[in-house]
Fold each of these.
Amino acid sequence: MEPGIIEVKGLRKEYGDFVAVDNLSFSVEKGQIFGIVGPNGAGKTTTLKMLSSLIRPTAGSIHMKGLDIATNAVEIKSFLGFLPEESPLYEGMEVDDYLMYFAELYCVPKDQAKKRIRELLFDLALNPDGKKIGDLSKGMKRKVAIARSLINDPDVLIYDEPASGLDPMTSRYITDYVRSLKQSGKTIIFTAHNLYQVESLCDRILILKGGRLVTLGTAEEIRKEYGKIQYRLEFKVDDITDYNISEVIKEVDESYVVITNDIDVVNQTTKWVASKGGDIVEMRTIVPSLEEIFLELMGVELFVD
Ligand SMILES: Nc1ncnc2c1ncn2[C@@H]1O[C@H](COP(=O)(O)OP(=O)(O)OP(=O)(O)O)[C@@H](O)[C@H]1O
């Protein structure tokens, strides 16, 4: 198999005695959207900061396009765009001037920078109307930070919670925009707490907990490996007293509900209901969402009605 555009091996970060990231290995293929999820403090931001050369790993290696980040950080930065979780912007500046300033830092020729800024503002539906950055809404500020991350037209984007804390419309806009960046050939690693967003957007997902990899794969692979398919059978009978097929039975409205992962329980219950002259109200399969699997992997007990 060809090496990925990003290859991470045995990555570790210690802060004093505390191990924030431990023996993390993964690879990202060109043109993929790769999502990193995990509870607060899992080590997501620390990982992204190491990928962006903002902090140095304690151990392990990171290669991008075959270049070792330990010795080629400057070259890697030229094709990398980083969006921090909280991006301090120069509040007193106007958006165009701010983006032009970063374009100059990245040595983008002026004419090219002007064209690029125009395109970015258009694509992100950003119309600052001469306002200073400090006077923009939170969603607009996030869009400015995204525009800044793209000013040098990088191939690899590292986005820390790009759409968090925004209203649903802006959040959706940014999610769709990230999808369009993939379509234009960019490789994107991002972190998020919204697992529906991650599931709909990512080619591959890495789940982190306590700095360690819990699992890595497509949403489908993770679902297959960890998701227990359950059956929910709802029925009506006059007398439930001699039912003893499943230990877990609930009364919901006028019906009884059995939830089980054992198809035999479903078959036996169906027969028992028929023998009692009762009716099956509904029988359905419950496929777990990524969010449910995530919560279960994190040790949170789930209840299904
Ligand atoms: N500079 C630092 N010094 C000491 N500990 C740190 C430092 N930065 C992060 N940590 C610790 O490392 C752990 C991982 O932090 P990190 O910010 O990477 O988590 P995260 O998964 O991004 O969390 P969140 O979802 O809350 O953003 C946390 O326990 C955090 O307190």
Amino acid sequence: MNHFEIRDGVMHAEGVSLEAIAAEIGTPAYVYSAATLRRHARVLREALDGHAETTDALIAFAVKANSNLSVLKVLAGEGLGADTVSEGEIRRALAAGIAPEKIVFSGVGKTDTELAFAIRTGVLEINVESAAELDRLIAVAAGLGARPDIVFRVNPRVGSGAHAKITTGAPADKFGAPVEEVMALYARAAASNHVRPVGLACHIGSQITELSPLKAAFAVLRRMTLDLRAQGFEVHRLDFGGGLGVPYFDRPGEADPVDYAAVAAEAARGLDVQLAFEPGRMIAANAGVLLTRVIHVNERPDGMRFLVLDSAMNDLMRPALYDAFHDIRPVRPREGAAGPYDVVGPVCETGDTFAKDRVLPPLEAGDLAAFMTAGAYGATMANEYNSRPLVPEVLVDGDRWAVVRARPSYDEMLAREAVAGWLIP
Ligand SMILES: Cc1ncc(COP(=O)(O)O)c(C=O)c1O
Ligand SMILES: N[C@@H](CCCC[NH3+])C(=O)O
């Protein structure tokens, strides 16, 4: 079921008209559907419940995809944990009521301060990505008299994802340690009194629409588990990462969570391990839209036709960064023939182009439109370039809605800065 649909001629998020939201808080604004978030969490949980190996798996939502406290709270209510990559994300997960035992701490460059924070918090596991990090973690844990559980993130040499900038498992990617290195690091960690190696992790990329690369990566972890056990090491946790793709409506084919669960279950068969998954996009992407208004249509004598929106690359960076496709739909569709537009924002960059030659239904100055599939890596990647105030976020839940991140006023934006004392006469 789609929770963003046209009713009485206007697009609604669940029971709330997007026109009503725009009238009250202005545009641009992200709007999330709590029902869609819950549905996606349940779809994955039910798929995992289909196999003995995956039934008790931890679903740790990748906070980087959408870190809004209300979104995390909705997902915490569904029993999800959190995959985090910074102290800030751990703090967000905790603030949303996610228990430390459901928090995974990943990332290629965790600082000593962040590692100490994670240890003191008592997170489920720290995913170690390199020899350099292992050494620092051992020193930090020794200083605290602690012995955290760690999992090694393997770079399985299987890269996948919709764009070169979002693969993470190819040999030259900065993520994870090569298989042979992990085998050596595992022994080094097991010999330390300050970390306890308990398993392996991988995450090979994002917006993955075919299961074969995931299957290959999971098979690497399976083989390593058997090899490590044969050497007498304990391996009881496997973290299969995230990466599952979603429909962006430009091309067919997202991976089916039921098939995904089957692939994961097969890889873990007979291993008697505790599994974790770190989905981000799959949970949040289609649970959000970016609501925007047409500033004007610039029809030039040279034939170019620009649809100039009040949202820009600073609000939704994916098209500029990855040439990503986002479906653009009128909030109140008009009668008339569709036609091509170059869809742009007001930021002073040629790259501030959402789509070129996109055939869209008629749109006029003042009309509202929605970027679909914007609930993941939208608001979290937004910034204030061109001194455009940070885009606000709204959560809809049935007939209720609330602003869950307010648009800063210009005064608030300026108040974060200061003029150095010596510059004031
Ligand atoms: C370690 C890790 N886990 C999980 C994710 C979430 O990925 P996705 O949103 O594609 O599911 C990411 C981001 O790609 C990641 O780097
Ligand atoms: N931010 C990216 C995906 C990277 C995921 C994080 N490793 C996107 O919007 O598609």
Amino acid sequence: MSSRYAQTPSQQQRPANSDSGYGGSVEDGDREFSVSVLPGQSSDPERRQWASHVHQLYFNQNRVALGRWISRTVETLKNFQTANSKWPATYPAVQRAEALSEEAETSEQPRLVTPQIAQEFNVLKLDLKLGALSPSELVHSLEKSSIASLLDGKIGQSVKHLMLLRDRIEDTSSKVLVTGDLNAGKSTFCNALLRKKVLPEDQQPCTSIFCEVLDARENSSVEEVHAIPINGALYNRHDSSTYHVYSLDQLEEIVVENDVYCQVKIYVEDVRAIDESLLRNGVVDIAIIDAPGLNLDSIKTTAVFARQEEIDVVVFVVSAENHFTLSAKEFIQAAANEKAYIFIVVNRFDNIRDKARCQRLILEQVAQLSPRTHQDAKELVHFVSSNAVIEGKDGAKLKEFDELEQSLRRFVLEKRARSKLAPAKHYLLNVLGDLETLAEVNINVTSAELEKVRDELSTITPEFQKSVQARTAVSDNVEVTIDETCDNVYGFSRKNISATIAHIDDKAIVEYDGVLSAFAYAEKTKEAMLQKIQKSVTICEEYARNQTVGGINSMKALGIMHLGDEYVEKAFRKELMFSRKRHQLSKTIQTEINIFDFFDFDKQEKVAGMSMGLTVATMAGGQLFGVSSWIDGLWKATSMLGPRTTRKLIVPALLVAGAAGAWFLIADIPNAVPRKLAKKIRKELEAMDYIHANSERIMKECRKVLGFPAEELRGAFQRSIEKQGRTVEEKKKLEKESEVAVKYFGNLLREAREHKGGVMKLDLEGPPSGTTA
Ligand SMILES: Nc1nc2c(ncn2[C@@H]2O[C@H](COP(=O)(O)OP(=O)(O)OP(=O)(O)O)[C@@H](O)[C@H]2O)c(=O)[nH]1
């Protein structure tokens, strides 16, 4: 029994796990046409074919749309790979570790992120199996760049996988595996599908290897058998060393009790028209694989075979007489888990007398073995007699088989949507979901980084500008400090040394022990005078030291104020100033004592009160005269007295005068010596510009010594400003990079969401609503 059934419009939106219904509506430009196959019209082959074609159209459109989304996602991933190399993407932190490990077990697709890290991730999980650290700890312990390179690898893998999926959805071949109990009539069923006796049929179990029947056009339209040896190389039609060629007639010899070959490829000419043929139906090129009958030994082999990626559909042939054997039940249960749905052919139905009872019993069993198959039993469980098909005598049986064929073709197409398009859709959604999560996380991270760097810049930029200004101000300040200190020291020295020199003869500085030790007196006086001057210089130097300390301290204060910890002060020892080249006046001064230093002829008038000679003259002449005016007076008196009197008086007068003068001069020695020596020293010092030279020497030492901390301070400022400048530049660069990254991840998020939305809209079992892609 099998019946055509209708697809009502309300059924067109099926839940994803529903397997029923092949109708639907498709918008093709302005034209919308609905597909419905009504029960009463089930015999109408045109309508059936049309329904089938529309179904194929949906499939094709979905396939193309999915292919486009794959290409776009690949492009997005590649761009992300490039961006990731410039701006290492941040990885999300761990949240729900347990939930993830379950998820990981259920998926065998390549993933970019390990389950323990970032549960939201499906594909872009990083595989981290190093050492004792948990992957999450490991991710956090890794350099950003190592995560980036791991991610880079994962993106690469993902791109590769997407390419494979694209190839797979573009592959138009589909394989139908026909399996079932021993002798159930599998080979007969395959031959019926081909409308040609190709595979050997026998009362005895005979098929011992997998026989794949393909359209001869795939073998340059040559009908032949390619037998693939056990343990041979991978089959390649273009490489004749990978198989042995036999004719179709020889098939029986190879297939029955074979221990040389593991599989045969049978290329046959399809005798039917394209819209009738299962092997080539315009959309999918179907290969039929006749599997050896199941026994407890072969279940595993067949189950493994059925799991193969290229097997789109499993057709299970069961004998109506035997129902399901133990091995059949075992296989169906396993296959139902793997492929979700299987197509069940209950063969040899002609041998059953109570057909209704048989149907009921078998459907009950199906319900137990695969509830989902049972749910859609009208489409998926067919009761036929395969042996009647090729002869084509029994019209009713032929019709039943014809309906089975139509169902099978729709099933293959639908299964292809599931087996080829659905994994691609599923994987795309996972990758895009991962990209979305990564983009979201990175938007947060990069936005936070941007905000942080902007904050920092708003603090350090004005600080930097302030430092630059402060440097100029401090530099000026230092100059002023040095100049003022030097001016001060120079002024002080000049004043102090001048005053000392001016007053060195103000009072007798050594004791006078009489005329006999006059020379020693002179020497001691000179020595004392030089010492006095020397002492005043020393005082100036000490003053300069203290002033320098003051200058240094004010520079230190500037350094600490502006540079804080960055300013390292150097120890200063003021006693080292003027220590290398000591000033020794006694060595510089040339002044020698001579006889004239003892007598001061010029100073008699000015120093009247202290002149003994003057006292004598006053007493003698009753007049108040100086020595010179006294001699002048004498001269005048002699001219008044007339030459003769003068001539008479001159000798005694001169004698008196001489005696008085000599006495006076000798008495004046203690005063004359300091005066004369002071005069001489002053003269010499003046000649050598002693006061200025010394003041300048002292000042220069100050300037030199102050120069060191000044340079230190300038250097520290320079370093500090350069450092700040570099930080500002780095932060500015980071700011720009962050801006680019924020923008990039924003775009990535938008793109990932757009793609995801588009992919989600694709209804793989209905009209492709995402065809705008
Ligand atoms: N009455 C009847 N006999 C059938 C039908 N289909 C197949 N047979 C017969 O059942 C026997 C076994 O058929 P095969 O097609 O060789 O069975 P098989 O499942 O391929 O056998 P193995 O591959 O060896 O397990 C043959 O003699 C067929 O003629 C059917 O629908 N009705």
